[in-house]
Amino acid sequence: MYVEIPVTEVLALAAAREPLPPMVRAVRAEGSTIHADIDLHAIPDAPTALRWAAMALGTVSVSATFTGYADGVASLRVTVHARSLPAHVFINPLVGPINDALKQRGLPDGLVQLRRGESEPVVLVGVQSAVDAKATGITITDVDLRDATARVRATIGAVAF
User: Fold this and answer.
1) Residues 83-107: what's their mean pLDDT?
2) Burial (CB count <10 Å: 0-12, 13-18, 19+), residue 13
3) For 116, which DSSP code?
4) Could you tell me if 66 and 151 are in contact, meaning their C-beta atoms sit under 8 angstroms apart?
5) Which sign does the torsion angle of CA 117, 122, 140, 103 carry?
6) What is the tens place of the pLDDT at every residue in 45-54?
C-alpha cells in the first residue's frame, strides 16, 4: 500500500479526532520540514527548568527536518529558536511532555527520543511502534516527507484494530 497525504490534511485528520495539545500554537509544513510554535507556558506539569525558560521565552519555534526512515523509526533534525536566537537546549525538556501527550492518546511511552546530532539534536519517532499500538498486520516499510507531503509505504497482512 502507498499513501501520499499533505501534512495539512494529516493535521486536519488529527484535529478532527481531538484538538492538538494546548501548548501547540501552530503547525505548518514546508518542503521536508515541519514548523511548530510551542507555548512553553501551556505545558502541563513542566519541569522546573522548563518553567524558568517559559518565564523568559514564552513561545519557541521548533523546526523538524525529515532526515530518514530505518527500522521503523523516522529521524528528524531539530532546530529551536526563541526570540530569533538558537535555543536547542530547550528541546530536552520538551521530549517528556510530548511523550506524555502521545501516551494520553493511547500511544506507547517513549515514542519520541532525542539524540545528539552533529550540530543540532536529532529526534527519533517510533513510527512502527505507533502503528503497532493501534493495529496489527501493518508494516511500515518506508516513510518520506517532501513538498509538505507525507509519503508512506506499507505491507498489509491480516489487519486487526
Assistant:
1) 69
2) exposed
3) -
4) no
5) positive
6) 777 766 776 6
Q: Which three cell numbers stand for residue 139?
A: 508494516
Q: Is there a contact between 136 and 61 (Cβ–Cβ < 8 Å)? A: no
pTM flag (> 0.85): no
With b meaning 16 or more CB within 10 Å and e meaning fewer, what string describes 65-84? bbeebeebbbbbbbbbebee
Cα 43 to Cα 49, 98, 115, 155, distances in angstroms: 12, 9, 22, 37
**Is the CA virtual torsion 134, 138, 140, 144 positive or negative?**
negative
